Amino acid sequence: MARDTGIGARVKRVEDQRFITGKGRYTADLNRPGQAHAAFVRSPHAHAKVGSIDKASAMEVPGVLAVFTGEDLAADEVGALPCGWAITSKDGSPMVAPGHPCLAQGKVRYVGDPVAVVIGETLSAARGGAEALEVEYEELPAVVDLDAAQSSDAPLVHDEAARNTAFEWELGDKAATEEAFAKARHVTRIDLVNNRLVPNAMEPRAAVGEYDSGTDGFTLYTTSQNPHVARLVMSAFLNIAPEHKLRVIAPDVGGGFGSKIYVYPEETVCVWASSKVDRPVKWTCDRAEAFLSDAHGRDHLTHAELALDEQGKILGLRIKTKANVGGYLNLFASSVPTYLYATLLSGQYDIPAIYAEVDAVYTNTTPVDAYRGAGRPEATFVVERLIEVAARETGMDPAEFRRRNFVTSFPHQTPVIMMYDAGDYAASLDKALELIDYSGFAQRKSQAAREGKLRGIGFSTYIEACGIAPSQAVGSLGAGVGLWESAEVRVNPVGTVEVLTGSHSHGQGHETTFAQLVADRLGIPMTNVAIVHGDTDKVQFGMGTYGSRSGAVGMSAISVALDRVVAKAKKVAAHLLEASEGDIEFKDGQFTVSGTDRSIDWTSVALNAYTAHGFPSADLEPGLKEGAFYDPTNFTFPAGCHICELEIDADTGHTRIVNWVAVDDFGEIINPMIVEGQVHGGIAQGVGQALLEHTVYDESGQLVSGSFMDYTMPRADDLPSFSLDFTVTRCPSNPLGIKGCGEAGAIAAPAAVINAITDAVGHEDVAMPATAEAVWQAIRKSPAREAAE
Amino acid sequence: MYDFNYHRPSSLDEAVTLLGQGEDVKVLAGGHTLLPTMKQRLAAPSDVVDLSRIAALKGIEATEGAVRIGAATSHADVAASGEVRNRIPALAALAARIGDPHVRNRGTLGGSIANNDPNADYPAACLALGATIVTTKREIAADDFFVDMFETALDEDEIVTRVDFPVPRRAGYAKFPNPASRYALVGVFVAEGGDGIRAAVTGAGPCVFRVPEMEAALGHDFSPAALEGIKVDAGGLNADIHASADYRAHLVGVMARRAVEAALEGR
Asked: Are residues A89 and A8 located together in one domain of the fold?
């Protein structure tokens, strides 16, 4: 086995050759014969009744083929987009979650809500038709401000959701937590804004729907992180076509970050409309549409409290969060501020009592759902801000305060469902302190002050839960689906291997890491392995990629299937070597009879498995192909320590990150280069949230920050070179010992940045995004101001 | 984007003729404002006249006491020009920080000033250096050229052909970029030239403007310290999601001091 491609090797990403030479095949690159184009008419109002729609006004535009509205969908009994995770309010009532019609049914609830679709011979004709379409609106008062949305005089987004509240949920032991606070020596209280983010994957969404009247079947090419789930939802809830008549293909996909998990109105309408016009229908989102119509992320208001005893030990934590869900409860939106959020409120700490209350609140804004980290960045921001502030208030070193409260023995049952299985939080903290030269910080700070700069340092010792599972457990918490993964390993007669996986790569590098695993286990070159994903006609089923689950769950499924392939191959080898199966050893691509020099190589066994000349078919089936559906025994718990050191220009408030250390424990690592890339990207997104990304709605519900001229994405020159390292505690709940790495950076980073800024300015009143002006304003009321001047 | 007629003349005469023919004719230089606006269907010119193949509009020439820059010269070419870097380093530095590399390779000096975006960098340089804007019809002093937000002294059928920048004794530019667009949230260009000191501010107001108090103070003492205490009134300054008027007013002071520092250091 070549050591340069095995597990642990920094193999360059094999898919990058096609991506960076323009050979990737994205949905927008696909053009089907006879294809027509779709343009969506979107609501210009945040809240309005939709009156008459004059289709003739659009049909007059040359090249327009058809106009469809919500009435047409209703006539075909096309369903509304559902929320797939049932949450029960603390009073026992079910969540109030009216479906999201793919085209408005009488009412629109956010700017950009699709109202109608125009199908044209060309994109220009479709857009011309969409522009010409006359729609009558009766504007209604809009509710935009999350904090005000639950007041009794606020306009209702949905008539059935009183006080605009989808659910009022709780987790934890209220009485025990109250008791903890009653005996506290010190209580830290903070109010936090977790700012709304627009995902902005590099590739905007796109879809091509194609109906084949010969087979009465549909094909949908779409930008999806989980094509099988899209097919399931379209079949089971939307009534597009039964699963065996609907093929969903997600080809190369250029980033998702959660925003491409969901089933969206546009792709649903494209596939449905293809049968109405009997032509393929293509839609490509432009960036302005993406800002309005991709599910947004985060958007919480939280009051949080931490109770301490006289030794600085944490006694209890409680929070009250309002989570903005936008105009509709999106596919997984209910799980994000609940089971993906409050279950992580124990952080890396031994906290005896926790109580969380979360209200999910409708507003006339774009729906909010999972975005890189999904609930866990919000939880980490709450916990790590609380911890930092508590340390400052009690005069303790923030590193020492953390160390004092770390969970140190495993397994550890938190008061909020999670059972942490393995970790060593002090190890990552220690390594990070050393890498950042913590003891030298005071000197660096005074040096910076002499140059008119405010220097600050901030910690984030985060924990997250990945590989969401097992299915039975998530089912008991309200999930509408199982969260296992499937894999199939097909060995060809020449010994090359195709691996079909239900995971979906949209930037993660699966074609490399998955092939590394296969090559390592079978002792064959990586070039002899193909990773197949993203097509419901090829892969039997899959739950897709999100929640950092592809390594821990997707690769584990491959691992189990590989075990089965090897077991079968040993049977073939035993016949060929005329030995008993139990005596066959398989190593580095060779099957050897134990204790002898008799052996046969992988390629010969594969060929013989298919010729079936060397064994009686009555004893052993020909062929070499095995599959697995793998369901883990627990979540995985990646954790680590990020430290951000930054300098603020006291004159302008501009923040420059000068040093970033991340020591993460992701369990076993297949390809450190790819893992580091994930950490880099995650930190960049977390820094974007903390410093730059500002989603602004005006009072009427118009998205003011709706373009890259106004919405600041993080760029290379906003970031330092990161200093990364790892600690490893093996994950006990999957065969590969993997924990997951895709979201860690985005989870850890915001708290580290804000902890550093508040350290620099000397008070806690700094909200995200900490734009230059916000920091400048904070400096003006800062005790540190004089120090710098 | 709506359909339109595309023209790519090879001479200025031809371009001017085309400008007079058609319902709504627009001039295309780097296209950074016009094309996005057309793609969003916010502009629907009947005809677009692309200036990119008119050789006479390109190039940089040093003359006695001035640097002449053709209107269709890209920001990248200005930034890289030895003549500009030697004689007006502040102008080269300004060009080097416009937008990003894509913008600098496509965007042009003439396009920028003819559009007169209130956040663009070049208007500050033109005004502070006392540049002369040469057009197909006449020569216009920078003081008279920038009229108001997105408004210049240009006639409908008039094309900027070049800008003549007098070489200053010293000059400096400091910019606080909008982090999203990289336009100037506030940019201040300070120059000491033949007719004294000029300080021009872009990004802060609806149109580039000079600050006489700063110019007077710098006339007595060309140092950052001379600007201490001089405040620009926030009334009338831009306020949007990127910055309040107060913050912009504050940044004018900070950027002015940094521009003077840059001038003193010859950057």
From this structure: no
